[in-house]
Amino acid sequence: MSNRCPILGPRCELCNCSGSGCQSQFPGLKVEWPTLKGVSGLQAKATIESDNPRVTAFIYREGVYLPSNNCCNRVVLYVRADDCPNGPVLNRPIVG
After folding, report:
1. What's the rounded Cα separation, in Å, for the pair 3 and 76?
2. pLDDT of the residue at 3
3. What is any Pfam family matched here (predicted)?
4. Helix, strand or coil for residue 56?
5. Parallel, antiparallel, or unpaired for β 74-79 and 56-61?
6. Is the pLDDT of residue 2 over 60?
7. Torsion, Cα of 33, 34, 36, 42 (10° steps)
C-alpha cells in the first residue's frame, strides 16, 4: 500500500444520505465506524473495506478541503498531516 497521501479510490457515486441515513442502501453492512477514531489510517481503511466491501476508504491529511458531495461509495478518513497515511484517524468515519 502507498505511503503517500491522499490515498484515493473510485469516482464518487452521488447520493442524498450519509452515515446511518444510508443504511437502507447497505442492508446487513456497516455504514458508520465510530470506534475507528484514533486508529491508524491504514488499519481503519482495511477494517472499513472489510466490513463493507461496497465502499472505499479515502485517506486525507487533516485540513484538506473537500467538496460537500455525499458519495455512497466512499468513507473519508482524516489523519495528521505529519503522519499520513499512518496517523490516527481524526474524524468519525461514515459512508457519504
Report:
1. 17
2. 61
3. potato_inhibit
4. strand
5. parallel
6. no
7. 50
Length of the chain: 96
Return the exposure string of 49-84: e unless at least 16 CB atoms fall within 10 Å of the residue's CB, then b. eeebeebbbbbbbeeeeeeeebbbbbbbbbbeeeeb
**What is the C-alpha to C-alpha distance for residues 67 and 12, in angstroms, rounded to an integer?**
11
- Place 1 in a pLDDT band, splitting at 50, 70 and 90: very low
Q: Is 28 left (phi over 0), alpha (psi -120 to 50) or beta?
A: left
What span, in angstroms and rounded, lies between the C-alpha atoms of 95 and 2?
A: 22
For residue 72 the three cell numbers come to: 455512497
**More confidently predicted of 64 and 44:** 44
Amino acid residing at 75: V
